[in-house]
Design a protein that fits this description.
The chain is of the alpha+beta class and about 600 residues long. The chain has 20 helices and 26 strands. The longest helix has 15 residues.
Length: about 600
C-alpha cells in the first residue's frame, strides 16, 4: 500500500566524483532454484579460518593489464586460457578490432587465434558472435546507465540495424539497456565510432565482466515517492568501470560476470535479491548511505538470492566499495568450472566475514562500517504501475509508459519512438527491466495527441491486455545459440491463447527463458517458463518448458518453485489457465459469459 511521501535525496555528483577518485538448498536437477537459507548464509554464520595462502591474489598487473599468475593456471576453464593468450581489452585499447574487421569470416575460421577473437574476446567489447544460428552476425550490447537514452541515440541505433534488413532488430533487455542484432564484423569499427559520437559505449558488457548497473531511473526525477536519485551513483559507477569509455583493464579480467544495482525507491524494480551487489538505501548517525547485499545470481546449476554483507557505506563510498569488491572478486575468485565462478561461490568458500574482510582491506582507508538498522525501503510498499499515463511531480507534465511486446523493436519503430520523444517529450526515452519504454516530460496538453499516434494505437499500447503487461521473454533460439526453444513469438502466442481461456482482474508477471541460464529471470516471475526438450503424446521430441510458480519481487522476495516439468509448448495454455484459476483468481471464459 502507498505510504507517506519520502523526501528525495539528491546527492552531489561533484562530492561523489571527488570521493570516488580518492531452509532449502538447490536441487541437483540444475533447473530448480528456490529461496532458501543459502549456502553462503549458512557459511557466514560460522566463518571458518582461511589459510593465508588462499588469500594471495591470483592475478598480477603486467603492462597495464591484469593476468592470472602461472602458479594458478592449473585446471582453469577455456575462457581463462583465451584471456591469458591475449587480454580481450587489447582489441579496444590497442585498436586490434580495426585489423580484425578487415578479415573475412573464412579467414577468421582458419586461425584459432582469430576465432577466439571473434567468439570470445569480442564479448569484452559487447559483441557476441551468433555462430550457431546467425553465422557471421553479431549481437551488440550497449551500456546504458540508468536505462536512460535519447532520441539521437535511438535514431543512430535504428540506422545501424536498418541496413541489415530482416537480420537487423533491437531488444530492450531485463537490465534496462539495448541490444542490437545483425551486426557484421567489417562494420564494427565505424559503429564503435558512431556510438561514441552520440555518447554511447558497449564497454564492458560481455562475458566475465561488469554488467550494467541497474537503478529505478525510469521513474526518477518525476515522482514524489523516491528515496534517492540514483543517477549520479550509477553514472559514476559506469564511468569508473569504463574509464569514461576508454576501457578499464584493472577490473575487466573477472572470473565471471558481475551484476550491480542501486536502489532508489520502495518499488525495488531493480530486483536487488538477484544481483551480485545491491546498494540498499539506509541512514546511519544522520548520514545517508547504503547497506550492502551480495551474491545474488542465476545460473544453470545454481540460483541464489543476495544476502547481507553486514556493511554500510556513505554516499561518498559508493564507487570505492564497488572497486574494492570487484578487486576482491578479481584477485580471489575461482577460475575453473564455469558453473562455480560467480561471486557467491567465493563467499561460500571464504565465509562471509573473511570475504567482507577482503573487501574492507581494499577500501581507501581499509575501513568498512557495519550495517545500519535505519533502512529506508518500506517493507509494505505496493509496487507502482508505470504503463499508461501518470502525472509527474513537475506541474503540467506526465510520463507515458509504453508496452513493447517482449521487448522487440524494428528500425522504423525505433525511428518513430525517437520522433515521438522529440515531438511530445524532451527527447528522452527510459528503458525498464520489464522490457518496456517510458516517454517522460510530456506536456499534459499533448497527451491526447500522443495517445492517438498510430504507433501507440497499433503497436506499443500504453494500456495493453492485463496478461501482456508483465510478459518478459529472453532472445530465444531465433538468435541465441544456448536457447533450447523459441521464446518471444511463443510467449505472445501462448499468452493470447490463455487470454481466450480465462479472465483475470490483476496483472500476473509471466517470464520466458530459452534455457537454464535464465536470462528471462523465470524464478522471480509469478509464472515462469524455462525451455527444455520433451516428448509429445506420440513420443516424438518437441520443444517444451518447465513451469515455475510463486516467484515474488519486492521486500518479500522469493524464488519460484517448479510446478510442472517438461510440458510440450503446444500444451502450455491450459496449464497456465489452470494456474491462473487456482492461484490468481481467474475465471474461465465460458463461466464468465454464462454469468
Amino acid at each position: 500500500m502507498a505510504s507517506l511521501p519520502v523526501n528525495k535525496i539528491i546527492p552531489s555528483s561533484t562530492t561523489l566524483l571527488s570521493s570516488s577518485n580518492n531452509n532449502r538448498r538447490r536441487n541437483n536437477s540444475s533447473i530448480r532454484c528456490q529461496k532458501a537459507v543459502s549456502p553462503a548464509a549458512e557459511t557466514a554464520a560460522v566463518s571458518p579460518s582461511v589459510d593465508a595462502a588462499r588469500l594471495e591474489p591470483r592475478v598480477e598487473e603486467r603492462d597495464g593489464f591484469w593476468v592470472l599468475k602461472e602458479e594458478f593456471r592449473s585446471g582453469i576453464n577455456p575462457a581463462e586460457k583465451v584471456k591469458i593468450e591475449k587480454d580481450p581489452m587489447k582489441l579496444f585499447i590497442e585498436d586490434g578490432i580495426s585489423d580484425l574487421a578487415t578479415l573475412s569470416m573464412e579467414e577468421v575460421d582458419k586461425s584459432k587465434h582469430n576465432k577466439d577473437d571473434i567468439d570470445v574476446r569480442l564479448k569484452w567489447l559487447g559483441l557476441f558472435h551468433r555462430r550457431k544460428h546467425h553465422y557471421g552476425r553479431f549481437m551488440m550490447r550497449l551500456k546504458l546507465p540508468n536505462g536512460v537514452t535519447t532520441s539521437e541515440q535511438t535514431r543512430y541505433l535504428a540506422s545501424v540495424i536498418k541496413k541489415y534488413g530482416k537480420d537487423g532488430c533491437a531488444d530492450v533487455t531485463t537490465r534496462q539497456n539495448w541490444q542490437i542484432r545483425g551486426v557484421v564484423l567489417p562494420d564494427v569499427p565505424e559503429i564503435i565510432k558512431g556510438l561514441a559520437s552520440v555518447g554511447l559505449t558497449s564497454l564492458p558488457t560481455g562475458d566475465g565482466q561488469f554488467k550494467e548497473p541497474l537503478s529505478v531511473t525510469f521513474l526518477q526525477g518525476m515522482t514524489l515517492h523516491e528515496i534517492v536519485d540514483t543517477r549520479p551513483f550509477t553514472n559514476l559507477i559506469s564511468q569508473f568501470v569504463t574509464a569514461n569509455s576508454r576501457g578499464n583493464p584493472s577490473i575487466t579480467n573477472l572470473p565471471r560476470k558481475w551484476n550491480p544495482c542501486v536502489i532508489g525507491s520502495h518499488d525495488l524494480y531493480e530486483h536487488p535479491h538477484i544481483n551480485d551487489l545491491a546498494y540498499m538505501p539506509a541512514t546511519k548517525n544522520g548520514k545517508f548511505g547504503f547497506n550492502l547485499l551480495v551474491g545474488g545470481f542465476f545460473s544453470i546449476k545454481r540460483c541464489e538470492e543476495a544476502i547481507p554483507l553486514d556493511a554500510w557505506v556513505s554516499a561518498e563510498d559508493v564507487v570505492p566499495v564497488c572497486k574494492a569488491m570487484l578487486e576482491a572478486f578479481r584477485d580471489l575468485g575461482f577460475r575453473g568450472n564455469r558453473q562455480k565462478c560467480r561471486m557467491m561461490w567465493l563467499i561460500d568458500e571464504l565465509g562471509m566475514e573473511a570475504f567482507r574482510g577482503e573487501v574492507e582491506k581494499r577500501m581507501p582507508e581499509q575501513v568498512l562500517e557495519r550495517a545500519s538498522s535505519e533502512e529506508l525501503v518500506q517493507k509494505d510498499w505496493e509496487r507502482r504501475e508505470y504503463l499508461g499515463v501518470h502525472p509527474q511531480e513537475q506541474q503540467g507534465l506526465s510520463f507515458v509508459g509504453l508496452h513493447i511486446p517482449v521487448g522487440r523493436l524494428q528500425a522504423d519503430e525505433m525511428e518513430e519512438l525517437a520522433r515521438i520523444a522529440d515531438v511530445y517529450g524532451s527527447g528522452e526515452l527510459r528503458l525498464t527491466v520489464e522490457q518496456n519504454i517510458i516517454i517522460p516530460n510530456v506536456e499534459n496538453s499533448k497527451i491526447d495527441s500522443l495517445l492517438n499516434e498510430p504507433l501507440l494505437k497499433e503497436r506499443y499500447s500504453p494500456e495493453p491486455p492485463i496478461l501482456m503487461k508483465g510478459l518478459v521473454a529472453c532472445t530465444g533460439s531465433q538468435f541465441c545459440g544456448q536457447a533450447i526453444i523459441e521464446t518471444k513469438a511463443r510467449a505472445l502466442k501462448v499468452t493470447e491463447e490463455v487470454q481466450r481461456l480465462v479472465s483475470v482482474t490483476r496483472p500476473v508477471r509471466m517470464h520466458w527463458t530459452g534455457c537454464p541460464n535464465s536470462c528471462g529471470q523465470v524464478q522471480v516471475a509469478d509464472i515462469g517458463f524455462m525451455g527444455c526438450m520433451t516428448r509429445d503424446e506420440n513420443g516424438k521430441p518437441c520443444e517444451g518448458a518447465d513451469v515455475f510458480v510463486g516467484g515474488r519481487i519486492g521486500s518479500d522476495s522469493h524464488l519460484g518453485d517448479i510446478y510442472k516439468k517438461a510440458v510440450p509448448c503446444k500444451d502450455l495454455a491450459p496449464v497456465v489457465a489452470e494456474i491462473l484459476i487456482n492461484q490468481f483468481g481467474a475465471v474461465p471464459r465460458e463461466r464468465e459469459e454464462a454469468e
